[in-house]
């Protein structure tokens, strides 16, 4: 559990540093997403909340979660920006990588250690810390709330498909 936590934090913070270089955003996001997915190596798909059972329902749940995550954007006066294709692909890569790492492998490790409460609170705390360098301090409350919502879904539905879809939607639209 400590190793997974250290690994995902190191990947996230390194990604943020790499994004600051000219032309570094898309490669950092894509490579960061792939590196985060490596945190799940060796975990059974069922432990990660992945699989194909009830897939249509899981996809529908992910769309609903995505809509909830977009509620803050709905109150903005301006239209949401449209990402260039290269950044859209990068946003998808990092969204999937973050979900597999935080609400997949890290959640599973924390759940083994102390049950669902430890997994929910711990994965949300590490998720928030991982975003501390890439988001302004006043936005970290929203980051924590999104992480908590996704972790609660992971616990209640034993599902990672919904959080992946919701995260992809949010990153593409926010």
Q: What would your notes on this structure say?
A:
The chain is mainly α and 174 residues long. The chain has one domain. It has eight helices and no strands. It has helices at residues 2-19, 25-37, 45-48, 55-69, 71-74, 85-130, 140-157, 161-173. Helix 6 (85-130) packs across helix 8 (161-173). The mean pLDDT is 91.
Blueprint of the fold:
Elements (H helix, E strand, L loop, with lengths): L1 H18 L5 H13 L7 H4 L6 H15 L1 H4 L10 H46 L9 H18 L3 H13 L1
Main attributes of the structure:
174 residues; globular; 8 helices; mainly alpha
Gist?
Helix content is 75%, strand content 0%. By secondary structure, it is mainly alpha-helical.
Please summarize the sheet with the most strands: none
Helical residues, percent: over 70%
H/I helix tally: 8
Structural class: mainly alpha
Task: Bin the strand percentage.
Answer: under 5%
Q: How many individual domains?
A: 1
Low-confidence parts: none
Computed over alpha carbons, the radius of gyration is: 15 Å
Overall geometry comes to globular
Instruction: Please provide the count of β strands.
Output: 0
Subunit organisation of the chains: single chain
Query: In whole angstroms, how far apart are the ends?
Result: 31 Å
Average pLDDT metric? 91
């Amino acid at each position: 559990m400590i190793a997974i936590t250290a690994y995902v934090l190191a990947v996230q913070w390194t990604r943020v540093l790499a994004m600051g270089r000219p032309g570094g955003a898309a490669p950092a996001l894509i490579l960061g997403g792939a590196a985060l997915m490596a945190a799940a190596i060796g975990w059974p798909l069922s432990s990660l909340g992945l699989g194909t059972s009830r897939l249509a329902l899981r996809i529908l749940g992910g769309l609903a979660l995505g809509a909830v995550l977009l509620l803050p954007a709905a109150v903005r006066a301006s239209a949401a920006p449209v990402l260039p294709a290269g950044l859209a692909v990068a946003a998808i890569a990092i969204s999937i990588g973050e979900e597999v790492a935080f609400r997949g492998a890290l959640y599973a490790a924390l759940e083994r250690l102390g049950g669902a409460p430890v997994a929910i609170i711990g994965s949300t705390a590490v998720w928030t810390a991982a975003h501390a360098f890439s988001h302004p301090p006043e936005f970290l409350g929203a980051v924590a709330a999104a992480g908590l919502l996704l972790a609660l879904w992971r616990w209640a539905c034993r599902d990672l498909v919904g959080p992946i879809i919701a995260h992809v939607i949010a990153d593409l639209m926010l």
